[in-house]
Amino acid sequence: MSAVSLPWPKQLSHRPLWVAVIWLALLAAPYWMPLAGGYTALGTRVLVFGLAAMSLNFLLGFTGVLSFGHAAYFGLGAYGTGLVLKFLAPSTPLALVLGMLLGGVAGALLGALIVRRRGVYFAMVTIAFGQVFYYIAFRWHSVTGGDDGLRGFHRQPVDLGFATIDIVNNTIAFYYFVLGCFAVAVGVMAFLLRSPFGRTLLAIRENERRARYLGIPIEQHIWLAFVVSCLFMALAGGLDALLNNFADPHEIHYSRSGDLVIMAVMGGMRSFWGPLLGAAIFVVLEDYVSSLTQNWMSFIGLLFVVVVLLFPRGFLGFLQQERKV
Amino acid sequence: MSSLVILNVANGVVTGAFFVLMALGLSLILNLSGIINFAHGGFLALGGYIAFALSKYVGFLGALLLAPFLAAILGLAIEWTLIRRLYGRDPLYSLLLTFGLAFIFQDGTRYLWGAQGLPMAIPAFLAQPISDSLFFVTRYRLFNLAIVALIVALLFVLLRHTRFGIRIRAGTLDLETVAALGVNVRLLRSFNFGVGILLAGLGGVLAAGQFRLDPTMGDDYLMPSFIAIIVGGVGSLGGTVLGGLLIGIATGVTTVYLPSASEAVMYVMMAVVLLIRPRGLFGEEGMMS
User: Fold this and answer.
1) What is the DSSP string of A209-221?
2) Would the CB atoms of B107 and A301 count as touching at under 8 Å?
3) CATH of domain A12-324
4) Could you tell me which residues of chain B have a Cβ less than 8 Å from any Cβ in chain A?
5) Minimal CB count within 10 Å: which of B48, B135, B152, B243?
6) What is the tally of structural domains in chain B?
């Protein structure tokens, strides 16, 4: 994973102007998206999958391990959130937190089994373990709804004590609720990446052997990065369940894990914000192309091939390279 | 009771034989080129569909002979045009490329032959049961087993006693040295890839005869094959064969006693192996890291 000879673009997150532009665009999205032919729920979906792709990239781009089973933790978050709302308590924040914990705990347990694997073998083991949750969701019909997915729950108004936000009927309010969760999660990940812990992850990515000789406990670091990544992935899944009032078993299938990886790679996995761009492109294309043709799968397959052959460093990496030349 | 167990073990061996064919092909490609071919299931389905199209003209047995080679030729074309560019690059890219190919394959077969499952006619003498007392076991299952056993034996002879085979085994251990000794590594990798796809195509024809054709049929074999490779030990083809059979038997037996756990049992096996013996049953130390 470490042998990267080409120069990577400078981190966008180090340019305050760009970061301000991104946040302004996200904050104003419900107002400019309709002008560009979008709608609020599509913007919310971009945020959800942007958060998912950025969480995955915490591992993929910044720790340098190849996780291909992350749809599982997205699904655990979605089902966890849905089940809490359906059976336990009608509280949106509680459901989100418990959904996150479900994904985090599963990630912590499985992560302990796989941290010693590297490269393709890490990918193989993560994808195989991820499929376990697909089969559970698919088979445990009485609890999960099986192939039909989990239905029968609804997101609840958020009570802040002094005010209640109606995220149930007001889609714009729900967009800002998701944006708030997104901001907290992204903020925590950015903070972690700038901390000594995050710098150590970069050191592991660049040269694992050297990091090991420096006395860094590699396995613990990768395990922790895995757990952090799974936690925020589960948060994204929980938000997705709230968005649709539905948890879909097909979102756990390993092919969805591939979609998440391509979002991160397409946007640019060496930049902090790249995966958000990749997710936005993917989600908007999915929305547009699947309304035009039945053969969405061929289209997405071609997208994979084109990205790998022409834009291996993602669009952000490509743009940066063009500017230098 | 005991005859029921024996029957399910036998059934499991037949299922395991499909896992073995698929996993051996994946394992060959993984060992020599460091690529996990996600499109392997797509090649399997394609082999089945090609046989379906051919069987109208040459019959089932003719299709069984021809279809795997046609699938392998397509595999070689894809290796030459796309996969070859990714050797030696970050494994992420070959994973993504073959992932995309798998999507295209699945959509393509659905477009050409429809999403509905298609039945594949097998010769009448194979469709009969073995005997009156074993009326639920068709001769076709035995035929499957015999073919798989023959092919696996041939593959091991090829690897052990031919120049190409020895080079493939040497390349698995140290490709750089093999290249330095003047072996055409590009050709070796292509040949090896072709053999892997040939096995997948053959598995597709046999599976089509036993179950039916379906654009997603390869998907059912992909995860068990991954697990067969991990359980058997990465780098060991003998381990892959054993892993495939073990998973087949375990799945067959659980289907009877605890049907809802029949898919879960192989994941439990993988977890146990990773805990107790991380390199797999026959894996070399360090091959998996």
Assistant:
1) HHHHHTT--HHHH
2) yes
3) 1.10.3470
4) 30, 34-36, 38, 82, 85-86, 89-93, 95-97, 99-104, 106-108, 111, 223, 226-227, 229-230, 234, 260, 263-264, 267, 270-271, 274-275, 278, 288-289
5) B135
6) 1
Domain chopping of chain A, boundaries: 12-324
Question: What burial class does residue B183 get, using C-beta atoms within 10 Å of its C-beta: 0-12 exposed, 13-18 middle, 19+ buried?
Answer: middle
Neighbours of A53 (CB within 10 A): 33
Q: Is residue B285 included in any domain, yes or no?
A: no
pLDDT tens digits along B48-73 = 999 999 988 988 888 889 999 999 99
Rounded Cα distance, B254 and A249, in Å: 23
Name every chain B residue with its beta carbon within 8 A of the beta carbon of A66: 91-92, 95
Residue B50 lies in a domain: yes
- Do the Cβ atoms of B97 and A3 come within 8 Å? no
Q: Which domain holds residue B26?
A: 2-276
Give the C-alpha separation, A229 to A103, whole Å: 10
Is 80 exceeded by the pLDDT of residue B133? no
pLDDT at B175: 85
Beta strands A164-165 and A158-159 are antiparallel
User: CA B31, CA A206: separation in Å to the nearest integer?
Assistant: 25
Say how far apart CA B192 and CA B164 lie, in whole Å. Answer: 9
| CB A312, CB A90: distance < 8 Å | no
Predicted local confidence at residue A4, as pLDDT: 43
- From the list A68, A114, A304, the residue facing B97 with the nearest CB is A304
* Helix (H) or strand (E) segment spanning residue A158: strand A158-159
CATH code of the domain in which B195 resides: 1.10.3470
Beta bridge partners of A159: A164
